[in-house]
Amino acid sequence: MTTREEVSMIGFAIVAHAGDARSTLLEAMDCAKGGDFTQARTLIEEANESIVAAHKEQTKLLSEEAGGSDLEVSFIMIHAQDTLMTTMLFKDQAEYFINSYERITQLEEKLK
Questions:
Q1: Residues annotated in the binding site, as ranges?
Q2: Binding site for Mg(2+): residue ranges?
Q3: Mean pLDDT, contiguous 10-residue spans, the chain (112 residues)
Q4: Which of 51, 12, 53, 56 is nearest to 28 (CA)?
Q5: Whether 44 contacts 112, CB under 8 Å
Q6: Which residues bind Mg(2+) (predicted)?
Q7: Rounded Cα–Cα distance for residues 75 and 85 (Å)
Q8: Protein fold of 4-111
Q9: Is residue 10 a contact partner of residue 53, using CB atoms and an 8 Å limit?
Q10: Does 55 qualify as catalytic in the annotation?
Q11: 3-state secondary structure of 36
Q12: Of 73, 79, 97, 102, which one is the catalytic site residue?
């Protein structure tokens, strides 16, 4: 059985991975705004790797609870879940904005 301390440590790991992803997504949007769409998409993939790492940490606890363990959830874990979910949503939004920036750039080039 996972202790409250272990649950909290997994929560910290989720926050760290999701935070890395969020920072990378912000950088990707800056690249797209500047017209570097190749780098923006590379950074999206890098952010996705961090999201996957966070999700793997989350899955450890989901599997344990599904197996019948009674886990003590801490506020850190609640924060971790919130951070991961908002980062996943932000990834979708970042991809949308990158595609929009690219389309705007293409349209502006046609107007020249």
A1: 82
A2: 82
A3: 86 97 98 97 98 95 87 89 97 98 95 90
A4: 51
A5: no
A6: 82
A7: 15
A8: Methane Monooxygenase Hydroxylase; Chain G, domain 1 (1.20.58)
A9: no
A10: no
A11: coil
A12: 79
Residue 3 per-residue DSSP state: -
Query: How far does CA 61 lie from the centroid of its chain?
Result: 18
Contact 98, 26 (CB under 8 A): no
- Output the pLDDT for position 1: 67
Number of Cβ within a 10 Å radius of residue 84: 23
In one letter, which amino acid is 86?
T
Give the number of residues written for the chain.
112
User: Do residues 61 and 28 lie in contact, with contact meaning Cβ atoms separated by under 8 Å?
Assistant: no
Give the angle subtended at the CA of 24 by the CAs of 20 and 25, to the nearest 5°: 115
Cβ 101 vs Cβ 44: under 8 Å: no
Query: Which tokens is 28 given?
Result: 């990707």
pLDDT for 33? 95
What is the value of pTM for the model shown? 0.90
The total of other beta-carbon atoms located within 10 Å of residue 92's CB is: 10
